[in-house]
Amino acid sequence: MRFISIFFIFFVFLSQTVFAEGPMVQNSQNQVAELSQTVKSLQETVKQLQLTVQSQNEVLQQQNIRIAGLEQSKTSPQQTGAVVPVSASTTRGISQGFNPDIGMVGSVVGKLTESKEDQEGNNSIALKELELNVGHVVDPFSRADAVISFNDAIGDQNANIEEAYYTRWGLPLGFTGQIGKFRSKIGKQNLLHSHQLDTVDYPLVIRDFFGEEGLASSGARLSNMIPNPWDQAIEITGEILRGNNGTSFSGISRRPIFNSHVKTYFDLPSDANAEVGWTTLFGDENPDTIYVDDSGNTVVIHHLEGQTRYGVKVYGADLTIHMPLPEGKKLKWQNELYFQNRTNRVHPNDKPWGFYTLLDYRFSEKFSTGVRFDYVQPLDVFGNPRETTSISPYLTFWQSEYADFRLQYSHTGPENSTGKVNNELFLKTNFLIGAHKHPVE
């Protein structure tokens, strides 16, 4: 009986102790969790500080290498007569400091079409383009960039210098200059390489007026911001380009193309913004001389030196509106319109014009969709109708910053009364490795 009483008293005491310690244990666990979170935060802070210190050490190391190189040049063998050895680590550090940024971009396109023509890429999968990008600062005042592209076109496999130019900033009056080969600053989409487009291909008006992938040519460019009493951002650009490129012009290198472009920006309600631009180009035509000889034969003479100085005038306007939406969504509306004033001695259409309008909706981090409508009166249209229209809806999957996939359908009307409607389906893949820098649009 005494044993049972003692056991009962011990059980009651133990139960009270356990229940009393319950809240204390819970409080201790909460404190331990808070301490653990604090320790993790401190560890992350220390890690960031270590990375910062490491970065600063690398900068100091590069500066020390440059200082050592300068001091060595002051005490060169030509001045002292002594042979000063350079360590392998110093040489390696200097070379690494001046290594260029290198990147590669590939674009693969699959295409199904109703067209019966045996054109490149029809009803096949092909490497549309492989770009090699190389660029680096030359010195504190300038930079050099180059874009070299390759393709596996069946008829004409080649390597092409898409761009290679030298940029010098800090010129008198605040100008920035470029010389070399570059994509001309015409509107918005002509500046972009094909993998930068929202769609699989360039708009019809760009292809017909400036070339299948727009206008890129060797030349010189100056750009600057225009001061004004309204404190409005206004950029002006002037270019002189070699005349051998661009379907609207002479194709003669010695006959230059002159281009000017002005753009400005506006803030709109709801954090939206608008960019407005204007483009003017002047260039030469190169019409053939046609006459009938004494025997009644028609003779055609193609002039290699170019004709009708500044006979081609191209005017363009562009408008782009960016609108941020809730939950990180974005909406873009982009438009470009072009009009030509020329003779009909080279192309049948003396006053062709065209435009496109594009609506792009980024509805999630991984997906965007949109549609582009094209209208153009082609340079070489014959008969009626005198225009071509196209509508191209698309869907893009952004796998990451370095890879994306795009599905696009295009319905294109005939160019003339004998043409046929063409329906096309595209699947395009873009992938990127390494560094990749293009100028801001």
TrEMBL record:
Residues spanning the signal sequence: 1-20
Gene3D superfamilies: Porin
Keywords annotated in UniProt: Coiled coil, Signal
InterPro entries linked to this entry: Porin_dom_sf
Chain segments annotated as coiled-coil in the UniProt record: 25-59
Name of the protein described by the UniProt record: Uncharacterized protein
Protein source organism: Candidatus Danuiimicrobium aquiferis
Source species taxonomy: Bacteria, Pseudomonadati, Candidatus Omnitrophota, Candidatus Danuiimicrobium
